[in-house]
Amino acid sequence: MAIIVQPTELHQTVRTPETAATPSRRKSRWAYRGLTVLDVFLHVFVASTIVIGIWRASYQLYIAYYDYINPWFATGASVFVQLLLSVLSDPLVKYFKQKNHSKIAFWVVSRVYIYSRFVSGMFMYVCQEWLLELSLSEVHKVVPNEIVLLICIIILCLITKLASIMGPPTCGFEFDPKPEEIFQFDRMFWPENGTGSWLYVLDSFFSVCIIGSLVVIVWRGVWNIMDKCLYPETMDFSAILSLIIGYTIVLTAFALQPVIKKFVNKLSGFKKLLTVDIYLLFSFVGAVNVWRGLWILLDHYFIPEAPVTSYWISHIACFVFLVLVNSSNSILVRGVYIDAEEDGTQCVDFPCYYVRLLVQKRKRRKQRHIEEEDKEMMQIKVGIDEQTNNTNQKILLPNENGGTIFNETEEQEEMLNSTAKIV
Fold first, then answer.
1. pTM of the entire structure?
2. Which has the higher per-residue pLDDT, 206 or 119?
3. Percentage of the chain lying above the pLDDT 70 cut
4. Tell me, what's the pLDDT at 300?
5. Rg for the chain, CA atoms, rounded
6. Predicted confidence band at 207 (pLDDT cuts at 50, 70, 90)?
7. How many Cβ atoms sit within 10 Å of the Cβ of residue 271?
8. What pLDDT sits at residue 101?
9. Which of 125, 129, 192, 272 has the largest CB neighbor count within 10 A?
10. Mean per-residue pLDDT, 78-89
């Protein structure tokens, strides 16, 4: 056990780290909890609202210009762009991970990549919804919407891809710092042959089209159930009620995370997978209600007399805001996730570290500044010790002229005293 002794009071009782650091540890623990609560509220009520705002604006812009767009061409073009961006992801990561790459080029290319992926993904989402509306219109006459929804959820559970349905505010708050966190997306199989292989293209196609279609059906099914059940005759009240339900479930899901993490950490196999899927489904219902409530309220109260203007303002302002806070990556659908595959408790974690990261960076800068000052002080002390040694050597040297040694000694003492005052 290490012993800490106060340098100015050597005669006092020795203190151990356990007794000396307890108050500071308690203070830091409560401070971290406070920052965690602040991060959750910023994520749930600010960042997620911005993400929902840009998705709502982009979707409504497509609907507004629907007469000028060929849905079949838009579907093919969006799938092609998504596949192309998937193929380019690994080369972009390799290039921008080099030490000599331009930071400005990375900033521009990464934001263009994010925006292109978002717009093409939005087109593909709307086109998938349009195609599913055509294909499922006859199915719903025979099979109720609830049954179709249940079948899709069961399929996602059986192939362990239920986590792919998660969206803000019940998913992580994405940042734009590293190339692999921007350009790479989780896919179904991750073939080892690389981006040039046909398996890679097939993997991307399956992840984008098959899993993506199942996700669209699940979101659409839950949304339609809310439209039917939550006072459809008064949409304003329905939206407020949906927000109350959504935020209650989402905040409860965040509050349960420490308990769920401890419980999941003790499980394995099917029990762990079942627990994770139940928790994700519970959180997902809350996320859908938050999206639905905010979406309806924005349609009704944000420049309702000029809806197209409202859509463009939301689209541009929300994206600019996310770029400024270095979180434009949050608007993207982050590929395919495998249930309970992450290490430890990450499978039930909704990371939303923003204020905590800023505080951590500030502490690191402060620590580096302190270390630099300590190095400078050590260099000054070493210089003083060398001067003292030189002085002692001069005093011991024989001198033929009387008084010279005394004068040199006085000069050295004056120089040492002045140096000590500076230190």
1. 0.77
2. 119
3. 75
4. 92
5. 31
6. confident
7. 13
8. 76
9. 125
10. 82
* CB of 120 closer than 8 Å to CB of 81: yes
Phi, psi of 4 (to 5 degrees): -105, 125
CB atoms within 10 A of CB 261: 15
Q: Which pLDDT value is given to residue 83?
A: 78
Question: Average pLDDT, whole number, for the chain?
Answer: 78
Contacts of 417 by beta carbon, 8 Å cutoff, 6+ apart: none
- In this predicted structure, the answer to whether residue 292 has a pLDDT above a threshold of 50 is yes
